[in-house]
Write a structure and sequence with these properties.
eight-stranded parallel beta barrel, 8 strands, 16% strand, disordered N terminus
Amino acid sequence: MPRADIAWDERDIMSRITTRHFRKSKLEERKLVMVTCYDATFARLVEQADVDAILIGDSLGMVVQGHEHTLPVTLDEIIYHCRAVARGSRRAHLVGDLPFGTYQSSQDGAVDNAARLMKEGGVQGVKLEGGEEYAELVHRMTRSGIPVMGHLGLTPQSVHQLGGYRIQGRSSDAAEKLMSDARALQDAGCYSVVLEGIPATLAAQVSTELSIPTIGIGAGGACDGQVLVLYDLLGLD
């Protein structure tokens, strides 16, 4: 018998937007629309706006829980909100954030946590922050059947290491490193990559270079899609 607290079924899964839609949108030069939300009510509303994807992000730590940053968010909390969004949506591609500490310590633990997020949360992909240093992990996840979305530039889980929420990739060395990271993630099997808080010219170069779509947030209009935190979109920040 299926668990009563899981609202999706095989028909829901088959009707959802898949990773193939992301690749096709890139080829057709059609912009992708992605928003974050964290509950069933908002999931129903944003789906009426015909968004391509919903990110259940660890940004919930700030906009829902009231923390100063995303680091306190746990895997159990992300799974809880993923379940809620999955109940409220039927078509959008769902991506769940892997919170800080769930993929940094070991590859075995990271794959287990990602698999749990998909199985219990009902998402179709997971997102993690970081570049070439996580390429081997991304490759292992994708070989295990876990679609992975990358995240480069301003990576909120590294806020203390970065010295705050600051634009990244401004120097030539930093730009070259970000480009190398983007290629590494693509080669490892990522189906898309978020570019946050980088110069628009650099985002445009990365978007041109990659064959997978880039999703921008604070990275200019040349990316293959955009993502916004719903609370910011509605002016509730």
